[in-house]
Amino acid sequence: MPRPQRFLLSLAVFFSTSVLANAQIGVISNPPTANSLLICSATAAGTPELRPEGYTELAGDIVINCTGGQPLQAGVPVPTTNVVVYISPAVPITSRSLAPSAYTGSFASEAMLVIDEAGALLQTGVTGNYGPKAPQSLCTSTTQGGCPAYVSFAPGFDSNYSPVNYAVAVTAPNGTTPAANVYQGQVGIFGYNSVAFFNVPVLPPAYAGVSRTFRITNIRIPIPGENITGVIQALIVTSPNELLPIGYSYYPINIGAVGPAGRNSVTSLISGGGNSCAPRPSPTLAAQLTFTEGFATAFKTRVIPGGATNSLPFNGTGNITWAGEAQNLASPANQNIPGGLYGGFVSYNESGFILPAASFTDPASNITYTAGLADFGTRLKAVFTNIPSGLTLYVSTTSTGSVAVPGGTSTTPYAVLVAASQHGESSADGTAFAPLTSALPGSDGLFAYPLAADSSGVTAAIWEVVDSSPFAQDNLTFSVYLACGTPVSISPPSMSLGYSPESGGGSFSTVTATEELIAPVPRFDLQAPCTTNNCVLSANASPSFSYSIGGPAPASQVVPVTVVPSTLAVAVTPVVTSPEGGTWLSALLDHGNLYVVVNPLGLVANPLNPYTGYVRLFAYNLSEVDVPVSLTVYPQTALSISMSHTGNFVQGEQGATYTIVVSSASVGPTNGLVTVTEHPPIGESIISMTGDPSVWTCGASSCTTSKSIVGGGSYPPITVSVIVASNAASPLANTATVSGGGSAASPSASDLTTIVPLTCNFTGGATPTVADVQMMIDEALGLYPATFDLNKDGSVNIADVEVVAAAAIKDSCVI
């Protein structure tokens, strides 16, 4: 089975965030620490509150900090390790994949690992852009070793301003180009609650006062429906552990805590008399809708303005203006997010770590998705029902408040109207942020936007948060207005409030979708949440494998899986249910095919009790699908071989034949390639080896097959055709051997064959005569039955006449 894509990233060695401008990393002239062991610890950079309504809540960063270790020489490759993060309680990681999965390709997600805070622009003593001063560089190679990192040294100054050399990572021996320092995590390789980072280079800090930092960021998880009310933890395992010694301890790290749910309310202000709408030609206030955070920072803005705009610390040159945020830097659509390590990220922004180089353009929609860039900010949705014909419903285009233009450094909560229908909530990276505007004032002074009800009297309004305060629980209030040209009999429209669905549209297709109306979906999968009506996940197969000890592992099997829509995110989790346990089962889902793989090496033979397990397929809001798998392990194969022939062979005979039969005397089936090899004696030479072409592939002196036979069964026979030399001795022993198929031995078989002289005196007398020659000619001409095929080539012909003529001349049979 092809290995999944792995990203190899290199290491540029300087500060962690805990080692500021006067510290040195990798400085040669400083003595190594007294303890030369590499010591690493993992901590949470923060423990943010997570919204119980969020399907892709952004957990806190994980920071691995290392000190000590042995110095490495210049020019040698930086050693690498693998890092796997598991989420507990076990929930699917919903960090978005940025490329379509391919069986031999990428499963890279927007979860990122950054080495030594690359791109943070922290000042160091080294000359050149290394460590935090290095630009963020993503390794995009799909093969191991594709982004090599080598040890080099760069000049600089220590804290006393004395000249020293710094150890750095570069792309080639003796090079100066900083090696790649960012790579993407692969979600689901070791279970739906895992993200793995492969081939992470680890350059030991080694020297006094020096540390090495690995930051894991942008891990997202779902909270609704998971019955999570407490702390979210991360467990970290590394392999080889000695290169980054934090694994196997399973010490939990708190990366998030589930906060209180948000609250929504409706304040009715309907006036005008009874159950009718008196003529109201202009929008008249009828109600106010209020959305309240469950905790400070629950309302989040969309994207990050440029770093220079907000004078971010350690970022004097500012960050790049991303495609999506370019629309948000001027009124009325700009949004605010001051501060942050990477040019703007803080806990009250929907986006995480932004890396334009890690992007994927969907060929169907032509939308480009960028790693860590949110599709939108927190959206608030109101659904209205029972709207009668003749009544026009309006909502305010903004929340109430004193903020005329959002953005800048304001922390006054503010939201703007972005959609006015059930299917208008979609928005995507790289597109313009375009709020809906109106010049029609409502009776309370806010601008009113008309909502068009569908045939069933249902409509919706969606607002997006563009300003929020990280210091207090925000309230956002919106106005609802009514207008009618003639009196209309009404019941007050009913309203259902909640957070907006993610992009893709249609997830609120009807008001009966109550699970979404009351369960907010702030962000941010690429399709609507599945229900049993619009998504399908099914598989009908039970792969069964057999293996004989000593043979190769069985080939993978493919199980067709129905996945609708094709973009549906499906987690794949192999589970072993046998009492013996183990990790012999793995699987990978790609483009509707589930590739099931077993690795039985090391398992004990037990043909009466197969090993069992299943592959669990999971898509959010759908029932789990289990694909049962069984593996039967047999004792080592015991092959046998026999060889036989009929009658005596004649000196000079062409096409004499042997028959070879290979059998299995073992309990289980053969496993792997089986090879039969001929070893003819002196006096015989092989013409050909043939067998059933659906089983055997034969060459000049051997036949092979990858077909399997059960214990006690036999393969179809092989026929060996030989030429017997004219001077062949008697008897001759022909030998054949068989190997492979899981057999520990290579048994052989011999057949002892009597070789007799050629007889060519047909008419009597002591020696061949002219009469014998004439008789052979008559047989060759068909005048008499063809009786004497002297050279055994299948017919009586001129070759046989030549044999008799030569014999008559020499007074003996010759060929």
Ordered list of secondary-structure elements with their pairings:
Elements: E1 39-44, E2 49-50, E3 57-58, E4 62-67, E5 80-88, E6 108-115, E7 150-157, E8 163-170, E9 182-188, E10 191-201, E11 212-217, E12 220-221, E13 231-239, E14 253-258, E15 263-268, E16 276-277, E17 280-292, E18 355-361, E19 368-371, E20 379-385, E21 391-396, E22 414-419, E23 448-451, E24 459-467, E25 475-484, E26 488-489, E27 494-499, H1 514-517, E28 536-539, E29 544-548, E30 557-564, E31 571-576, E32 585-590, E33 593-598, E34 611-618, E35 625-634, E36 639-644, E37 649-650, E38 654-664, E39 674-679, E40 684-690, E41 697-698, E42 702-705, E43 718-724, E44 732-740, E45 748-753, E46 755-756, H2 770-781, H3 798-810
Parallel strand pairs: 2-14, 29-35, 37-46
Antiparallel strand pairs: 1-4, 3-12, 4-11, 5-10, 5-13, 6-9, 6-11, 7-8, 9-10, 13-14, 15-17, 16-26, 17-25, 18-19, 20-24, 20-27, 21-23, 21-25, 22-24, 28-30, 30-33, 31-34, 32-33, 34-35, 36-38, 38-43, 39-42, 39-44, 40-43, 41-42, 44-45
Helix pairs in contact: 2-3
